[in-house]
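Table 4 source record.
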Amino acid sequence: MDKLKIKLINKSHHPAPAYATHEAAGMDVRAFLPEGPVTLRPMQRALIPTGLYMQLPAGYECQIRPRSGLALNHGISIANSPGTVDADYRGEIGIILINLGENDFVVNDGDRICQMVIKQYSHVEWIPVNELDRTVREDGAFGHTGTN
């Protein structure tokens, strides 16, 4: 498994994002709410600060993904899931939480609110053409392959 070194400024009083297990792909990220908790009413969204600033290497992005337990148990998700932090961004990482559940949800300082995954990416060079290679599927869309 590769280890990628990334510069991190942590202005919160919480630990840096960390893997919960040895084989985990995502790191838990905590809310930094020194002014107090934030209550999300059903269908409400809010930008939750983390106190984290990073310098990603060129060719890498940081993906912000929902935590499965929050999604299943409370309907809490990431409004722009997955969120992307670009390599040239240097501001604080903020998490856009949304409450898709039926009840109010309180986000407290230090709560684990999302997963962070660092991924390598490629830039695309478009090749204009008049037709595409043929496939068995062709233009079969949603539900085309059936349910069984």
